[in-house]
Design goal:
The protein is an alpha+beta fold and 111 residues long. Helix content is 46%, strand content 24%. The chain has one domain. It has one helix and four strands, in the order H-E-E-E-E.
């Protein structure tokens, strides 16, 4: 009489191979989710930067911020404006820094 089926050793080896394969797939998915989240935060910072640039463009006098300030309309986004003189008549360099979690974007412009 022939025994049909798998031995316990064959089943254990198959389970180990399956577990290793699934853990690799899980790591790829987690990496993809993290990258997508970071990209979405960067896109939100770009949108917020465009809004702030428009606001700074129409204001005649730009006031530097003492530190990071919460940006209304964008959850978790903070910004900071710094000013430095270039030594050329009245031209100044402004630096706009936007942050959300670990994502950060820095713009430099002159006025």
């Amino acid at each position: 009489m022939r025994n049909r089926g798998f031995t316990l050793l064959e089943v254990l080896i198959a389970m180990v191979v399956l577990a290793i394969s699934l853990s690799g797939i899980f790591m790829l998915l987690k990496s993809n989710i993290d990258t997508t989240g970071y990209t979405l935060r960067k896109i939100e910072l770009l949108e917020a930067g465009g809004d702030i640039f428009y606001t700074l463009y129409v204001e005649p006098d730009i006031e530097p911020t003492p530190g990071f300030v919460k940006l209304n309309g964008y959850e978790g986004v903070k910004y900071k404006v710094t000013e430095s003189s270039l030594g050329i008549s009245y031209i100044k360099e402004y630096t706009l820094t936007l942050k959300k979690d670990e994502a950060e974007i820095v713009y430099n412009f002159y006025r």
